[in-house]
Amino acid sequence: MNKILVVHGPNLDLLGEREPGIYGKDTLETINSLLKKEAQKNNVELKVFQSNGEGDIVNFLRDNRKWAEGIILNPAAYTHTSVAIRDAVKALNIPTVEVHLSNIYAREEFRQKSLIAPVAVATISGFGKQSYILALYGLLNLIKDKG
Ligand code: DQA
Question: Could you read off the pLDDT of 74-91 as tens digits, one per residue?
């Protein structure tokens, strides 16, 4: 069984009610169930985590560093600001796919810079909830190629 972490950053707990024109009408729970269904089909074990706190995300990554073979990470607003999360991803040296529901490169200028992208293996941005599913398959292929 492959082991993958799914980490959602701040305000993603409000999906469904938060700017549905940008982020869609699905709740985080729906996205997580979709991911779990795909994971089951592919014999993957997921650990899913959401936090609004930068330090909590850093700690979660650190605490699971021996367990995880891959990371699906939507750092949300921390994408654009967090040296701490970038450093954690770099330190762990576990393949990480950066995910965004929206296309951050088609939005405000401050969103067009990601501090995480240079330490991620790939970024998937703009496919809505499918961004997470694409990340899961991309990551699985990568892990299997390596192993
Ligand atoms: C987001 C994009 C970020 O700019 C924003 O702060 C979010 C969500 C996305 O999934 O599209 O909270 O990461």
Answer: 999 999 999 999 999 999
Residues 100, 74: contact at Cβ < 8 Å?
Answer: yes
**Whether the Cβ atoms of residue 73 and residue 43 lie closer than 8 Å to each other:** no
Atom index in ligand 1 nearest the CA of residue 107 equals 4
The full set of domains in the chain, from first to last, is 2-146 (3.40.50.9100)
47, 5 Cβ separation under 8 angstroms: yes
The ligand 1 atom at the shortest distance from the C-alpha of residue 75 is 13
Mutate to test the pocket of ligand 1, among 52, 74, 82, 114 (most ligand atoms within 8 A of CB): 74
